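tool_log.txt
---
The assistant was asked to compare two proteins side by side. It first ran the structure predictor on the initial sequence, then on the second. Raw inputs and outputs are pasted verbatim so the downstream comparison step can read them without reformatting.
(1)
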Amino acid sequence: MKGIKSLIYEIDGLNLVINIGDKNQIKYKDISSVISEEKTFEYLRNLFCIIDSWNKEYINTKMIDGSSWSLSIIYSNGNKKEYSGKSSYPNNFEAFERLNQKLIDEVQNG
């Protein structure tokens, strides 16, 4: 988990951005808040357990209209790990959504 610079999750025009550095920061809708190193580490630990078995792409070609999403993990050395989908998701995508919502709720509620 060392060396991660930022994480960007986009779904249907909404962005969740987590910047990691001297001060870890979350940006989502009208929220822009510093988050503790402990919360950041817990989030990343859980995230990597969830995405460990993900493929790079999940595309349902039979759906013309549908939801699009992407997750980018950007490392300090410039490397990038990317996952994306259109009308298709990994089996444990709901766990990923719950993890994000938990972090957002914790930031909103202090």
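(2)
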Amino acid sequence: MLYIGKLIVENDIVKPFYSNRIIQKGNKIMEFSVKGIGIIKEADIKIDGLTVIAGSNNSGKTTVGRALYSVVNAVENLDQKQDIDQSAAIVERIKKILNIYRSLLTEYEFMMQDFIEEKNKFVVEILDLDHMPIDENSDYYITLLYQFCDSIKTDTFLDFLIDDMKKISPYFEAREDEFYSEWKYIKPKALLECSKALDSAKSFQKQERKDFACKIAARTLQVEFMNQVQSIGQSDNGQYSIVRLRNQKENLFEFYISDDNINIEKSKFQDGYFDSVYFIDDPYVIEDPRVYRFITPRKRTDSYVQSRIVNHREDMRCLMRKPEEDKKISETLYQEKQLEKVMQQINAIVPGMVSGGTYYTPEMKIKVGNLATGFKIFSIIKKILTENDLSDKTLLILDEPESHLHPEWINRLAEVIVLLVKECNITVLLTTHSPNFLLAVDALMRKYDIRNKCHFYQTEQEEDHRVKYIERTDSLDDVYADFAASFAKMSAIRKKYMNLEE
């Protein structure tokens, strides 16, 4: 654990704040490819530091960010997700078996409600599954399932129930035969359900990691794109859309998409590389989540993990909702050298912290909804940096973050982003349609000497209205010229009418 600062609460009580953040240095050169997603015809972008996509509105800039977020978010911590998914499925199977004996178990729990200590430990372990959180330990749940099914087959579970009730009530002995008869009557149905549950558990254990990755990635894309992943031309012609992440040696994954589902047989999966991804495109996610809530479409699914997938905004709301160690935070001092320069820039604009829908400094507290929109962007980034584990496998996606900022704050934001890449080795993908922001990034990447880790792209719309990405890393003047055309147009109109006025 690393000490990174202090928390100052309203009554001046100071408590330490800890994080297990590990920031590593490393070299990562990857290429992310998209074909036939949304309005994008094809896009191949390098991501190994700072990647900037420039273009007009409705030109597919956001689509690449959403596609990248979806697949990275889907396969991050994949082994953990697969373990939880299997655990949850086994728990549901055990609950189905319990439900067959629901009337008997209800009577047992009613009788034993004031005698918790007298309950058989194995019975408690099984019944508590109804209201206990799912752990990422599928081996434990598989063992529990086998033990439970065996206890039904041998009537051991019944004996546990009867013994417990006889211990606390001498009158139960008169009903023992009745209880036993009902158990026996239901037992064939319970054993059939046990057989299904055991077969299901065996199938879980045989499930390939690749198959699970494809299913999770498909569902995440469906949620993120509201069940309209493919572009119209691609889906109508029955063509595959492709999402691919490649390092210098091989494809980490390559998903082939048809009818908004991933073709598992045709697709490939090795690894996801990134271990965390954050997508910021809405400054209002930092406000009270009960006021603003984006509802994502849902499809029926048997997967525990898939049923809980949300889009990037809801995911960010959950992150913003996460409470700090103390809700009355007003200042955090940073001792980690890798974050020091970044935090200096952020603290110059956002000296306090947001907690529970309120922004705190030593001098004031303000409801987040009353803060300037641009202020919220910096607050979101600060919250991510101070409350999460960051590494060289962290991906930050920023979609037009300059939209609500004054030119001076645009410069500050550009410096924060460049420093995150240089000092913390975080990978950043950002989109923009601001010449000011592009110029700031262009200038500061040179100042901080990270040109070799920066890549610039421009969207280009074709006759069929679909979009291609053109790399402009060595020809940024073309991007500036495109931005300048709109300015020149209005400047000419202004000049014309000024002359008429004279």
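---
observation on (2): The chain has 15 helices and 17 strands. The chain has a mean pLDDT of 85.
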